[in-house]
Each structure stands twice: as structure tokens, then as C-alpha cells.
Design a protein that fits this description.
Residues 1-22 form the signal peptide. The protein has 298 residues and is an alpha+beta fold. The protein is 64% helix and 8% strand. Strands 1-2-3-4 form a 4-stranded antiparallel β-sheet. The chain has a domain at 106-291. Helix 5 runs antiparallel to helix 6 (137-159). The chain has helices at 2-6, 11-14, 59-62, 71-95, 100-130, 137-159, 163-183, 190-194, 204-220, 228-237, 239-255, 259-272, 281-295; strands at 22-26, 29-33, 37-43, 49-55. The protein contains 13 helices and 4 strands.
Length: 298
């Protein structure tokens, strides 16, 4: 799903350092993305771990314009969706489509994709029933943002009760832990990885929270908010700008420790509590092998 499969894959595009690493949860597995390649590790039905690696340089490595401020956020989103979708599809094949876990997670991914379409337009429409967008644009957009957050939180709380999705969220937590250990230069052992936090400041779930925040400000500046069709269509047209700004906020807050950055990170961690579970050792082992494969010298 968008919040987990794009999730910390953003960190591979947030940094320009050669050691940049990102990833996302897959079905019974973890995908890790290094600057020049991505690796997928999947726990097969027989208990073995399948490993594969794909050469796939990030767009930000190939094109200078893909590293421009604001533009890089949209590029990161595209790259994250592209790679994680491939990994998710491949992991479904490897894990066995007949398994309930695979079917449930794929259905949840599709449902969330549809939900995100409503997530853009529906809150603006509902907020307009309660507040005048023309007379009180900031209040209107703040209300729309709260409705967005309520839809997202309600949905994630709902699917989080499904055991199979809970296991998917454990792979998300394992991916965060493995990247944290790698970034600290620690040997990738079960003990070292399990000691790391399951939350990460550059997670895609945090990015979605920041999209809601920046959307309140950007949409409040839209001209002619009294025109319903433009007010709703404009939210779609301005989404790349909102995503670009949210990415810059994410990038800044992850790299700083000032009070505002700390507050933003705390907010992001609260959202991550909806998509992250503490992983078991067998799940962490999958994340470790994916990390080692992705970062192994060519």
C-alpha cells in the first residue's frame, strides 16, 4: 500500500550521498533500494528466503534536473511508486497468490489506491458544506485537512486489525530497523537490527502527513475558491506542488534537530504508529538479507 510500499523508499532519494538506502515492505518480504540497484528478499512458503537484485539507477542519479528543489519530490514519488510496485508484484508471485496473505494485502493496496483518489477531492467537497471557501479559505482548508487525516487514520486503523496486514506492517518495521542499523554503520546482525527503532524520520507515512499539512497552506492561496469545480479540480492540479513542498519539509526535518524539526518528526512518528509493527526475528532476517544484497559491491 502507498504508505508502506513507498514508505522509507523515499530515503533513497532524499540523500545525495553514495551510501543512500531506501526500501519498502513487500508481501512476505522487503525491498531495498541502493542508488544503482534494488534487491528483493521474500520468505517463500517452504521457509527459504529468495533473493534477487536488479540494476536500476535512480532518476536523480541520471538527470541533474531530477535533483532540483520541489522537482525532486515529485521525481522521488514517481521512482518510489515505480520500484515498489514492481517489488510488490514480484513478491506476490514468489509468496504464492493462492495464499490469503497475498490476496488480502493486494486487495488492501488496490483499495488504498482508490481511497487516495477520494482523499484528494472528497475532503474539499465535504469541507465546503460546512465552511465557505471564499470567505474563510484558511479555515476551510484546515477543515479539509482534518477530514483527510480522519479518512486516512480510520482506514489504517481498520485494516490494521486484519492479521495478514499486521504482518505486512511488521515487514515495514523490519525495513526501518535494517536501514537504521546500516546508516549507523553497525554489522547487520539480528541483535543490532532489533535494537533500532521501528520508526524512521524519512518514512513515506510521514510524507503523507506532511502532504496534508502543506496542502492546507497551498490550497488556501488558490484563486477563485468560490467556484466549486475549480476548487476541487485545482486540488488535483496543485498536488505535484504540494508533494514537492512536503518532500522539502520531510528532507529538512529529518536532517535537523531544532524544535520545529523535532515537532514535525514527532508528528510523523505518530502517523507511523498506524503502519508499523515490531517485527519478529524471522521477519528481521529477511530485511537483513535484502539490505546486504542491495549494498553489496557490484
Amino acid at each position: 500500500m502507498i504508505t508502506t510500499r513507498t514508505s522509507s523508499l523515499f530515503r533513497a532519494f532524499l540523500l545525495n550521498a553514495p551510501a543512500a538506502l531506501g526500501g519498502s515492505a513487500a508481501l512476505e518480504g522487503v525491498m531495498m533500494k541502493a542508488p544503482e540497484r534494488w534487491a528483493l528478499a521474500v520468505r517463500l512458503p517452504d521457509g527459504a528466503i529468495h533473493l534477487e537484485v536488479h540494476d536500476d539507477p535512480a532518476l536523480s542519479k541520471r538527470f541533474a534536473w531530477a535533483r532540483w528543489p520541489l522537482v525532486r519530490g515529485v521525481v522521488a514519488l514517481y521512482d518510489a511508486l515505480r520500484v515498489s510496485s514492481r517489488a510488490l508484484s514480484r513478491s506476490a508471485e514468489l509468496a504464492g497468490e493462492e495464499q490469503p496473505t497475498s490476496k488480502t494485502a493486494l486487495y488492501a493496496t488496490t483499495a488504498l489506491s482508490l481511497l487516495l483518489g477520494l482523499f484528494i477531492v472528497l475532503p474539499g467537497f465535504l469541507a465546503g458544506l460546512l465552511v465557505s471557501a471564499a470567505a474563510q479559505p484558511l479555515l476551510y482548508n484546515l477543515l479539509a485537512g482534518l477530514i483527510k487525516a480522519a479518512i486516512l487514520v480510520g482506514y489504517l486503523l481498520s485494516i490494521g486489525r486484519v492479521p495478514e496486514i499486521g504482518r505486512f506492517f511488521m515487514y515495514h518495521g523490519a525495513e526501518h530497523k535494517a536501514i537504521a542499523a546500516y546508516e549507523r554503520g553497525l554489522p547487520l546482525t539480528l541483535e543490532n537490527v532489533q535494537r533500532q527503532s521501528a520508526y524512521h524520520p524519512r518514512c513515506g507515512t510521514t510524507f503523507i502527513a506532511f502532504v496534508i499539512l502543506t496542502g492546507v497552506l497551498v490550497y488556501s492561496l488558490m484563486p477563485a475558491p468560490e467556484v466549486l469545480w475549480w476548487r476541487l479540480l485545482g486540488r488535483v492540479l496543485l498536488l505535484p506542488l504540494v508533494a514537492g513542498l512536503a518532500f522539502e519539509v520531510l528532507r529538512y526535518s529529518a536532517a535537523h534537530t531544532d524544535p520545529l524539526s523535532s515537532l514535525l518528526k514527532a508528528l510523523g512518528f505518530r502517523f507511523q504508529m498506524l503502519t508499523v509493527r515490531q517485527p519478529t526475528e524471522d521477519i528481521v532476517e529477511v530485511a537483513i538479507q535484502s539490505t546486504q544484497t542491495a549494498t553489496r559491491p557490484a
